[in-house]
Amino acid sequence: MVAKHKFWRILTRIHKWAGLVLGIQIVVWFASGFFMSFFNIDKVHGDHMATKHAWTLNMEQTAPFSEVYNLYAENQRELYCHPMQRNACLVRNLNGVHLRSALGTPVWEFDNGVDKTYISGNPAKIWTGLSEGLITAAAGRYYLGDADINTVVLFDKAPKDFRKQSPIWQVTYDDNAATRLYISPITGELVNVRTRLWRAFDFMWMLHIMDYKERDNINLWWLKLLSFCALLFALSGVALVTHRMFLRPKRNK
């Protein structure tokens, strides 16, 4: 009887200390989860502010693929071969070749496993990307609001609310949602939409998964540790309540 009483007393102390240590994080988990449960994920993604547009690929007067490939091979020799050995230098093996649409212009993507080379098919030339004017025009096709463009900026390093490939064009709008469109400089494709709601949701997600840097890793060791401790806290609480309500001997009045 004494051993049982000691066990429940130790369990009570563990529960109290665990609650003290985990209390703040548990409140953060509940608060962030409560916030995120209120919003439709499509609205968080900004689907109501912009939509993707399919551009018709114009294949008229497109250079033959052999011409495009020869231009790619010449470019690779200039990049990787010594000037005195370019004629005998072999081109790197290709992992894949894809035909892309850059707002309707055919662009070939050559992937050699190290980098990607883009070559326009009309005419055949090294493709360096779309101009600011074309990006602005494309953004006008994607945007569903009625606000004016605030800024158009090409980022060499991806901004915090994008966290994907770079370089990337960012087009911001002067609307209540603080909309930002992220557009590929190579194809003009709408890659992502970011709004004020998305940034708030992303902040809550960061607090929820405890990844304060990349905000996408749910396998951090401290998250696992605190989650395990929180589980013990909950289970010990259930055990204590069950004991006090049903198992503990009732005192005589």
Comma- or semicolon-separated keywords:
single chain; 253 residues; alpha+beta; four-stranded antiparallel beta sheet; elongated
Short recap of the structure:
The chain has helices spanning about 1-35, 40-45, 65-80, 130-140, 195-210, 220-245; strands at about 95-100, 105-110, 115-120, 125, 150-155, 170-175, 180-185, 190-195.
What does this structure look like?
By secondary structure, this protein is α+β, with helices and mostly antiparallel strands. Among the domains are: 2-40 and 203-247, no CATH class; 65-126, no CATH class. It is 42% helix and 18% strand. The chain is built from six helices and eight strands; from the N terminus they run H-H-H-E-E-E-E-H-E-E-E-E-H-H. It has a four-stranded antiparallel sheet, covered by helices on one side. A four-stranded antiparallel sheet has the order 5-6-7-8. Helix 1 (2-36) runs antiparallel to helix 5 and helix 1 (2-36) crosses helix 6 (221-247). The longest helix has 35 residues, at 2-36. The protein starts with a helix and ends in a 6-residue tail after the last helix.
SSE map:
Elements: H1 2-36, H2 41-44, H3 65-80, E1 96-102, E2 105-111, E3 116-121, E4 124-126, H4 132-142, E5 149-155, E6 168-173, E7 180-183, E8 190-194, H5 196-209, H6 221-247
Antiparallel strand pairs: 1-2, 2-3, 3-4, 5-6, 6-7, 7-8
Helix pairs in contact: 1-5, 1-6
